[in-house]
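The following record pairs a protein chain with its ligand, magnesium ion.
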Amino acid sequence: MREAGKVVAGVLNELAEVIKPGITTAELDRMAEEYILSKGAKPAFKGLYGFPYTICASVNEQVVHGFPSLRKLENGDIISIDVGAEINGYFGDHARTFAVGDISDELQRLLDVTSAALAEGISVARSGNRLSDISHAVQDYVEKSGYSVVKDYVGHGIGTKMHEEPQVPNFGRPGRGPRLKAGMTLAIEPMVNMGSYHVQTLLDKWTVVTSDGQPSAHFEHTIAITDSEPVILTLP
Ligand code: MG
């Protein structure tokens, strides 16, 4: 899983270098696929439930599952890129929201809060805690910051499949659900809306957007629970 995590972290680091006004999300998809194949890994989203691409590319008010397209990114946009890879039967899942050129302070704060909410969730992903302690930590941080967490989509167990039990919601009361144990591997992935938490799916049946049209950000790491600190597997 470390190997798979390294591949998806490498993808996002490479895309970070080229995300600029004028590039299309289809070009980002092609680069991601080439990178994954060059590492002897497979794009894990392609074909999963029928999703046709290597990355999910979700711009501005798009929350998750956006299709790469000929849309050119513009200065001031934000783009969430989610990518999965499989190597030797093990999976990694990773997402980040990037600034395109110069973004407003308001959007930068949305990115910072979402990334920090992920860190808050990871910080309590410890042996002996309960699953919903992660959910609660994420929700609490996001709502104290004045934003909302998406409720219709959640994190998940991951390992020899991309999506395994248990689901990892980004909201809920603490102290519930299974007790966390060393060796569990989870994808924690807050999706944070600047406005209300309500989302809807476009007619392409994939692209999820905020119902109020306000921007949304998404950060995700695959992590392993140990007897001490949680270990982030999606690092270069
Ligand atoms: Mg995921």
